[in-house]
TrEMBL record:
Residues 47-371 form the Aminotransferase class I/classII large domain. It comes from the Bacteria. GO terms for molecular function: pyridoxal phosphate binding; transaminase activity. InterPro entries: Aminotransferase_I/II_large, PyrdxlP-dep_Trfase, PyrdxlP-dep_Trfase_major, PyrdxlP-dep_Trfase_small. Residues 1-27 are annotated as: Disordered. Keywords: Aminotransferase, Pyridoxal phosphate, Transferase. Residues 1-11 have a biased composition (Basic and acidic residues). It holds the Pfam family Aminotran_1_2. This is Aminotransferase. Its cofactor is pyridoxal 5'-phosphate.
Length: 389
C-alpha cells in the first residue's frame, strides 16, 4: 500500500513496524544514556548487547585513548590531512580519494546530499540511515529485501530485481548488518545494478581479516567489477572494529572528482583533533592494527559458543540463528513476543537490538553483539528464565 513517503518497495514481503515502540528502543542500538535515565541507573550498569561494537578489545582502546592528550587550543584540521594520508595508504588510493567524517553517518548523508539522486535502489536489510538520508533529500527509493529462508543471501531472484530497477544510486552493505551475510557474489551484484553511483558500506569489513572474504570486500576489489562510467563510493567506520562508539570517526573512498563534490558540502571541523589522533593511533599498521586483528580468532570462538548457548535457551528458531562478523541475529520462536522479551531483558538491565524497525528486516529478530562469556551467560540465563515464565 502506498504512503506519502518518497519510496516504494517490491512486493516480496511486508516489513512490519517495530513491536517495540520507537520511543522505548530508539532508532538504533547502543542508546544506553537515554535508557539509563529512564531506568534511573548508571549507563555502565546496563549490559549492552545492542551496539555491535568490538567490546572484547575494550582494554586496547582504553589504553590508546587515555594516552592521547586532548588538543583544545587549536581548530581541528577540517580535512584530517594526516589521517587521510594514512587511510589512503591502507585503501591503496590517493589521499584526494578519501574523505574523513564524523562517523560513517556524516558521509552517508553527504553522499546523498551532494549527489542528489532522484532514485535509489537499496539491497535490504540495510542500515536505516540510508533510508533516512533518502527521505531527508526527497529520493524515491526501492528496497529489495533478501529473504531469511535463504540466509539473506542475494539469490538470482534478487539479482533479477536489481537489474529490473535502474536508479541513480544503488546502496549495498557487505558484511551486512543485521542480516549477518557477507555477499559471496559481489561480482554478480555489482554487475546486476543499473546505477550511475554505487555505494558499498564496508563498516564491518575489518572483522573479515584472516578470512578469504577480506580481500574481496575492499574498494580496490570492487572497482574492476563495475560497468564503465559507474562511480563507486565505499563507506567505512572506526566505531565497530575499534570499539570507539563515542569518538565518532569514519571515512569514505571514491574517485578524486567525486570526493571533491562531497567536500563541497562538508561542514568544517566536524571531526575533532582528538578523533583524528585516535584514528592515526588505530591505523598504526605495525603495532595497533595487528593487536586488534589478533583478537579475532578468540572472538570467533566466543561467537560460536554464544550461538550454541542461544540455541539451548529454546527461545529461537534453530535455523534462524545467524552468525554475523561480531554479532548474532536470531529469530524468536514466537515473533509476537518481541516486545515482551525486550522488556523482560531490560528489567535485568540487559539491552538487545530488536530488528523490527530495520528496513527490509522481517519481524521477530533480535540482534546481539558478541561479548565475553560471563556477559552472554547472563543474557542466556535471563532468556531461559523468560521462556519458562
Amino acid at each position: 500500500m502506498a504512503d506519502n513517503r518518497p519510496h516504494k518497495t517490491p512486493d516480496l514481503h511486508t516489513t512490519a513496524g517495530s513491536s517495540v515502540p520507537q520511543e522505548a528502543q530508539g532508532a538504533h542500538g547502543g542508546e544506553v544514556y537515554r535508557l539509563a535515565r529512564r531506568l534511573g541507573v548508571s549507563p555502565d550498569a546496563i549490559l549492552d548487547f545492542s551496539s555491535n561494537a568490538n567490546s572484547l578489545c575494550d582494554d586496547l582502546t582504553r589504553a590508546i585513548l587515555e594516552a592521547i592528550p586532548y588538543s583544545y587550543r587549536h581548530y581541528p584540521d577540517t580535512w584530517c590531512s594526516a589521517l587521510r594520508d594514512r587511510l589512503a595508504k591502507h585503501e591503496q588510493v590517493s589521499p584526494a580519494s578519501v574523505l574523513v567524517g564524523n562517523g560513517s553517518s556524516e558521509n552517508i548523508f553527504l553522499t546523498v546530499q551532494q549527489l542528489r539522486p532522484r532514485t535509489a535502489v537499496l539491497l535490504a536489510p540495510i542500515f536505516s540511515e540510508y533510508v533516512r538520508a533518502c527521505e531527508a533529500f526527497g529520493v524515491e527509493y526501492t528496497l529489495i529485501p533478501c529473504r531469511e529462508e535463504h540466509g539473506f543471501a542475494c539469490t538470482p531472484r534478487e539479482l533479477a530485481l536489481l537489474a529490473e530497477h535502474p536508479a541513480d544510486m544503488a546502496i549495498i552493505c557487505s558484511p551486512n548488518n543485521p542480516a549477518c551475510v557477507t555477499y559471496e557474489n559481489m561480482a554478480d551484484i555489482l554487475g546486476a545494478v543499473r546505477a550511475r553511483t554505487v555505494v558499498v558500506d564496508n563498516t564491518y569489513a575489518e572483522f573479515l581479516w584472516g578470512l578469504p572474504e577480506y580481500a574481496a570486500n575492499r574498494h580496490a576489489a570492487y572497482s574492476p567489477l563495475l560497468p564503465p562510467h559507474t562511480e563507486l563510493v565505499t563507506v567505512q567506520s572506526f566505531t565497530k572494529f575499534f570499539y570507539c562508539t563515542g569518538v565518532r570517526l569514519g571515512y569514505s573512498v571514491s574517485s578524486e572528482s567525486l570526493t571533491r563534490r562531497l567536500e563541497e558540502g562538508k561542514t568544517p571541523w566536524t571531526v575533532s583533533a582528538f578523533a583524528e589522533q585516535a584514528g592515526l593511533a588505530f591505523m598504526d599498521e605495525q603495532k595497533t592494527l595487528p593487536a586488534y586483528r589478533a583478537r579475532l580468532k578468540d572472538m570467533r570462538r566466543e561467537r560460536a559458543a554464544f550461538a550454541a548457548a542461544l540455541t539451548a535457551t529454546g527461545m529461537f528458531m534453530e535455523d534462524r540463528i545467524f552468525q554475523g562478523v561480531n554479532f548474532i541475529t536470531a529469530r524468536l520462536r514466537h515473533p509476537g513476543q518481541t516486545a515482551e522479551v525486550y522488556a523482560g531483558l531490560l528489567e535485568h538491565a540487559i539491552l538487545v537490538r530488536v530488528c523490527d524497525n530495520i528496513p527490509g528486516m522481517p519481524p521477530g529478530f533480535l540482534r546481539m553483539q558478541v561479548r565475553e562469556q560471563a556477559a552472554w551467560q547472563q543474557l542466556t540465563s535471563v532468556l531461559a528464565s523468560l521462556r519458562q515464565a
